């Protein structure tokens, strides 16, 4: 039975038992607490937690999953994976232990046809109910039902409190007896011989803060069977990598590398790593993850680069992983059509990241070899930091290599150096903490600042805390009020500015932020009077600045939606800045946008503006908002209730920022620039409203000035500039030719200097291109015999040198050797053919010394 048939049979079997078969959810979960979907139950967490009522009470899935907690074991063991498929059947308050156990056994023995004598069962030590079902209803011999402890056979809770319950596992006896003998081995004593193929979780309790268990009103079933592991057992192979699930991928690796599997144990490890990681990379990119240095993108980059590094160990010296990914797509596209739909995206992103990393490998590998050679037991934190800081060599790769060589890595020392670098960077940026966080944490226990700024631009508020306690004219202070209209910087939106007014006093608000949740701090400079606690003040924001910011924030939402419409749903926000004068939007995409794509995006946004669509703001439960399609940003903290900003039929996002009430208020949207900020991440900057008008007027001014300067109409500008550039290029070419003629005359007039029987011609030019310098050396050597020419050219802080040796001398004097002498003196490098060579360096003051060194060498070799 093939792996595809097992997957299909599993889903069909549980469909026959009344289960609704659902497609796999994305690897990117709708759960801000998780980076990836790590198990089949993750998409159903809200149901297990009782936060959402299930649409179906019985569900079966084959869920794509990703875990990296054991990444160092991938390739070294038969069964560790980053990406894997989890077969699962779920009951939400419907059937329970009896049905789950009976159906699991039926599928394993009747559908998969695994022999009963090869199967063992483990249960939680106190789960007598499961024991009786296995023994009395299934018929498993009592000696083959093993009671296990909480560490292996009890699931959850995920945190200190929550749903949890005992587990039952089905184990397969591979028959490989250990040193204790076949009779004494059990799943409790030999996890190499006995392979877990099915886990049944009986979620029946709720654990409270004191660790006590309480029966749940609705009991649930959560099962999991790894497809790769089950396939290996059914197909009778000792490794998941030898199943038909991996066969086409392993074949592609053999084809690309020229290495045969199962001929060299070390190369086998590398082939398994590449096979596993190629699946993870393909599925992550298909689900909208791009290589980066943060969060999900960092995990993808780590997996991808680890695969590339193992390709290098196989002897591969250029990009290859994207070709392996193509085999993954072909093998799995029928089950996961998103792979075929995003084939080009997967291959191009992979290849681009490979190209970047191959440069890193070339630069850092030699240094790594030196470090390993000198390291006795431990690679120091300083060496690891140098590799990372100078060459961008990933610490994960160094750790992998160290493990292979039996070395440890001083990660603590590395982290200290990294932290010191972060501190230096913060100081260089001039970042200053406005106050100690602990002070605000204490304040937050008694005070929560109420935000009124969604509805008002001005309000009355009382000073509840200050640092310093009192502030007079020209003094800075941090002030907390009981309520405020000032928007605090967060979510990419800059803070409001404005003024605070009280009887006989006024202060300017320069910056507003949230030091701890619930507390809003206003950084102010007092301009008149004295500001102190308990004063009742009038808070007024800069309305014009706020309105401009609101235009840009709503436009950012429209831009995000337009990009997803034009480029695809893989586009995800990667960061943003919403300011009064502009907006900046960073997003995941693998290549520069074409001009027509930028125009499409700009047109879509402006159409939404011209349609004057009302902007709807609602508060609703987080799960409800996400279920309706609202985009939640990973890394943001969302409470139980969230604020949803919706432009009907165009955009819907969770957002705490300030927005216009109607898209027509934005006025105009204009993209100013599009650029790359890192691998797989692009940036668009744009302006709206009055700033868009200012931008267009500045362009109009430039066009009008050009018409005056060029003496032509606007329509003729491009043609006229083209003509001028062509003429300039022609004149530059003529100038270079004339310059070369003059220089040729100069080198022809060179007078040689006799060094015994050899004549040395040398001179120094300024700002002569290397190609021209070579041409001049041809002229200088001419038809001369017993001659050597050394021409130097200085350019800024650099020196170039071309050396020519007449053909009758090359048997005795090599130009390449002379170039090395010159380079050593100038502080650079050099080499070349016997008749012509080049050298370079940075020490302009050493040219005379280089000529002297040549003379000494020529004298010595003739002596």
UniProtKB/TrEMBL annotation:
CDD domains recorded: AlaRS_core
Cofactor or coenzyme needed: Zn(2+)
Gene Ontology BP term (one): alanyl-tRNA aminoacylation
Xref: InterPro entries: aa-tRNA-synth_II/BPL/LPL (IPR045864), Ala-tRNA-lgiase_IIc (IPR002318), Ala-tRNA-ligase_IIc_anticod-bd (IPR018162), Ala-tRNA-synth_IIc_core (IPR018165), Ala-tRNA-synth_IIc_N (IPR018164), Ala-tRNA_ligase (IPR050058), Ala_tRNA_ligase_euk/bac (IPR023033), DHHA1_dom (IPR003156)
Molecular functions (GO terms): alanine-tRNA ligase activity; aminoacyl-tRNA deacylase activity; ATP binding; tRNA binding; zinc ion binding
Keywords assigned: Aminoacyl-tRNA synthetase, ATP-binding, Coiled coil, Cytoplasm, Ligase, Metal-binding, Nucleotide-binding, Protein biosynthesis, RNA-binding, tRNA-binding, Zinc
Domain annotation Alanyl-transfer RNA synthetases family profile: ranges: 1-698
Location within or outside the cell: Cytoplasm
EC category: ligase
Catalysed conversion reaction: tRNA(Ala) + L-alanine + ATP = L-alanyl-tRNA(Ala) + AMP + diphosphate
Co-factor remark: Binds 1 zinc ion per subunit.
Entry coiled-coil feature ranges: 718-748
Classification via SMART domains: tRNA_SAD
Binding positions for Zn(2+) per the UniProt entry: 553, 557, 655, 659
GO cellular component: cytosol
Keyword tRNA processing belongs to the record: no
Function recorded in the entry: Catalyzes the attachment of alanine to tRNA(Ala) in a two-step reaction: alanine is first activated by ATP to form Ala-AMP and then transferred to the acceptor end of tRNA(Ala). Also edits incorrectly charged Ser-tRNA(Ala) and Gly-tRNA(Ala) via its editing domain.
Description of its domains: Consists of three domains; the N-terminal catalytic domain, the editing domain and the C-terminal C-Ala domain. The editing domain removes incorrectly charged amino acids, while the C-Ala domain, along with tRNA(Ala), serves as a bridge to cooperatively bring together the editing and aminoacylation centers thus stimulating deacylation of misacylated tRNAs.
Family statement drawn from the similarity comment of this UniProt entry: Belongs to the class-II aminoacyl-tRNA synthetase family.
Name by which UniProt lists this protein: Alanine--tRNA ligase
């Amino acid at each position: 039975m093939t792996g595809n048939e097992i997957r299909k049979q599993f889903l069909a079997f549980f469909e026959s038992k009344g289960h609704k078969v659902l497609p796999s959810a994305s690897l990117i979960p709708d759960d801000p607490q998780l980076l990836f979907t790590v198990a089949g139950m993750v998409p159903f967490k809200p149901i297990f937690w009782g936060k959402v009522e299930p649409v179906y009470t019985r569900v079966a899935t084959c869920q794509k999953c990703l875990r990296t907690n054991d990444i160092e074991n991938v390739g070294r063991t038969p069964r560790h994976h980053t990406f894997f498929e989890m077969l699962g059947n779920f009951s939400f308050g419907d059937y329970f232990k009896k049905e789950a156990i009976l159906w699991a056994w039926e599928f394993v023995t009747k559908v998969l046809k695994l022999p009963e004598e090869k199967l063992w069962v483990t249960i939680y030590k106190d789960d007598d109910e499961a024991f009786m079902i296995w023994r009395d209803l299934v018929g498993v011999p009592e000696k083959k039902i093993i009671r296990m402890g909480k560490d292996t056979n009890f699931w959850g809770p995920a945190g200190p409190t929550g749903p949890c319950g005992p587990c039952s596992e089905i184990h397969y006896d591979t028959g490989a007896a250990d040193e204790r003998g076949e009779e004494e081995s059990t799943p409790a004593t030999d996890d190499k011989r006995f392979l877990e193929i099915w886990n049944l979780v009986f979620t029946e309790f709720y654990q409270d803060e004191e660790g006590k268990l309480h029966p749940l009103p609705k009991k649930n079933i959560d099962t999991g069977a790894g497809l790769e592991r089950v396939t290996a057992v059914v197909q009778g192979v000792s490794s998941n990598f030898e199943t038909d699930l991996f066969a086409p991928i392993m074949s592609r690796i053999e084809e690309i590398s020229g290495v045969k599997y199962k001929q060299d144990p070390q190369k086998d490890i590398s082939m398994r790593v590449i096979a596993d990681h190629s699946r993870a990379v393909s599925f992550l990119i298909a689900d909208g993850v791009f290589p980066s240095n943060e969060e999900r993108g960092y995990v993808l980059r780590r997996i991808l680069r680890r695969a590339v590094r193992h390709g290098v160990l196989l002897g591969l010296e250029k990009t290859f992983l994207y070709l392996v990914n193509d085999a993954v797509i072909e093998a799995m596209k029928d089950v996961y059509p998103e792979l075929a739909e995003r084939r080009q995206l997967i291959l191009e992103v992979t290849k681009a990241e490979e190209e970047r990393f191959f440069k890193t490998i070339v630069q850092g590998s030699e240094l790594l070899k030196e470090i390993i050679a000198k390291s006795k037991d431990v690679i120091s934190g300083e060496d690891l930091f140098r590799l990372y800081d100078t060459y961008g060599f990933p610490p994960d790769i160094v750790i992998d290599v160290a493990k292979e060589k039996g070395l440890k890595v001083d990660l603590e020392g590395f982290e200290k150096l990294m932290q010191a670098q972060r501190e230096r960077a913060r100081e260089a940026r001039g970042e200053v903490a406005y106050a100690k966080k602990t002070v605000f944490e204490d304040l937050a226990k008694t005070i929560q600042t109420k935000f009124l700024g969604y509805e008002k631009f001005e309000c009355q508020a009382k000073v509840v805390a200050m640092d310093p306690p009192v502030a007079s004219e020209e003094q800075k202070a941090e002030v907390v009020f009981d309520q405020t209209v000032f928007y605090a910087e967060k979510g990419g939106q800059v803070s409001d500015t404005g003024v605070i007014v009280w009887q006989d006093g006024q202060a300017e608000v320069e910056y507003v932020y949230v030091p701890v949740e619930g507390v809003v701090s206003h950084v102010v400079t007092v301009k008149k009077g004295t500001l102190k606690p308990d004063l009742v003040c009038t808070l007024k924001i800069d309305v014009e600045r706020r309105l401009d910011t609101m235009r840009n924030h709503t436009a950012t939402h429209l831009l995000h939606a337009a990009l997803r419409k034009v480029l695809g749903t893989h586009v995800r926000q990667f960061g943003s800045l919403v300011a009064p004068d502009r907006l900046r939007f960073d997003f995941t995409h693998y290549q520069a946008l074409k001009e027509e794509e930028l125009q499409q995006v700009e047109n879509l946004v402006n159409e939404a503006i011209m349609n004057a669509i009302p902007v709807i703001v609602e508060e609703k439960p987080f799960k409800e908002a996400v279920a309706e399609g609202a985009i939640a940003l990973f890394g943001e903290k969302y409470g139980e209730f969230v604020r949803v900003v919706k432009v009907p039929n165009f955009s819907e996002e969770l957002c705490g920022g300030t927005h216009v009430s109607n898209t027509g208020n934005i006025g105009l949207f204009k993209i100013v620039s599009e650029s790359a900020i890192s691998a797989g991440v692009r940036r668009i900057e744009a302006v709206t409203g009055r700033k868009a008008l200012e931008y267009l007027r500045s362009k109009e001014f430039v066009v009008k000035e050009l018409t005056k300067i060029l003496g032509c109409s606007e329509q003729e500008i491009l043609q006229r500039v083209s003509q001028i550039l062509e003429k300039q290029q022609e004149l530059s070419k003529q100038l270079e030719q004339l310059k070369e003629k003059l220089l040729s005359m100069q080198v022809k007039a060179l007078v040689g200097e006799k060094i015994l029987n050899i004549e040395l011609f040398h001179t120094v030019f300024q700002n002569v291109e290397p190609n021209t310098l070579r041409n001049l050396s041809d002229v200088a050597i001419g038809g001369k015999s017993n001659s050597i020419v050394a021409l130097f050219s200085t350019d800024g802080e650099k020196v170039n040198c071309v050396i020519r040796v007449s053909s009758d001398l090359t048997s005795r004097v090599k130009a390449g050797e002379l170039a090395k002498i010159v380079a050593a003196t100038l502080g650079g490098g050099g080499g070349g053919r016997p008749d012509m060579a080049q050298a370079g360096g940075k020490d302009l003051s050493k040219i005379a010394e280089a000529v002297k060194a040549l003379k000494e060498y020529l004298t010595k070799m003739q002596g």
